[in-house]
Specification:
The protein is of the alpha/beta class. It is about 40% helix and about 15% strand. α6 packs across α7.
Length: about 240
């Protein structure tokens, strides 16, 4: 299948899943994750109408956005600022400034230190959209705040003027049915909305489990290889 065919196929599946859940597919944002793929693929996606892209690594995010903001040697127009760039990987405090310069939204705020680092990195009066990443596993080494601590972290983020709390993000555990995990995330999201009514985003669901995420109320899906194809061999 071509890139266009894969994108259309996923959009059809999203629409079907939304219909089964009694939801409007138009309220669901499809983020195409381009991890390890070149900036040229992002340009192809843009030509197909994609405007929301996601990156796991700060270096890739910075490089791709910069490449697509520059005039191309072959005369192509810069498109970097026409896209909305989502940072969805684990954020490190020493890279907070670089992440903030390139990301329009950060899905992986999972501790006070990274929230504070992103806030301190503000260079003007711009506001950065952020989500609380929740750890749905029993492994404390996995990314994400413990569910019991999510409300407290949300309240901390709300006190940082340069950050705008948008909602929650999570990855379904490998040893649990996605529907069950995403149902728990929905409960956590509902709790956070008690202190932040405008935090309506639920970033959940990837190539293999986005239908279950939609059923549980996901508003943002992070879909990679099902659209982009296999990731290039990095040697």
């Amino acid at each position: 299948m071509t890139l266009s065919e894969r994108l259309s196929a996923i959009d059809e599946r999203i629409a079907d899943a939304a219909c089964r859940a009694g939801r409007d597919a138009g309220e669901i944002t499809r983020i195409v994750v381009t991890k390890f793929h070149p900036a040229s693929l992002v340009r192809e996606l843009h030509e197909l109408g994609v405007r929301e892209v996601g990156e796991n690594r700060q270096q890739e995010l910075t490089a791709k956005r910069a490449a697509l903001q520059q005039d191309q040697a072959d005369g192509q127009e810069p498109i970097g600022d026409e896209l909305r760039w989502h940072f969805i990987g684990q954020a490190q405090t020493n890279k907070a400034a670089a992440i903030r310069r390139s990301a329009d939204a950060v899905h992986s705020v999972d501790r006070v230190r990274i929230a504070d680092a992103l806030h301190r990195a503000a260079e003007d009066d711009s506001i950065l959209d952020v989500l609380i990443q929740v750890n749905l596993t029993d492994d404390p080494a996995r990314g994400g705040v413990a569910p019991a601590a999510a409300d407290a972290l949300a309240e901390h983020v709300l006190a940082l003027a340069s950050l705008r709390l948008r909602g929650v993000m999570a990855v379904a555990p490998l040893d649990e049915e996605p529907a069950s995990a995403f149902s728990r995330l929905r409960t956590i999201a509902d709790g956070i909305r008690c202190v932040a009514p405008e935090a309506t985003w639920i970033s959940a669901g990837m190539s293999g489990d986005f239908a279950e995420a939609i059923q549980a109320g996901a508003t943002h899906l992070r879909i990679g290889s099902a659209i982009t194809g296999p990731r290039p061999d990095r040697g």
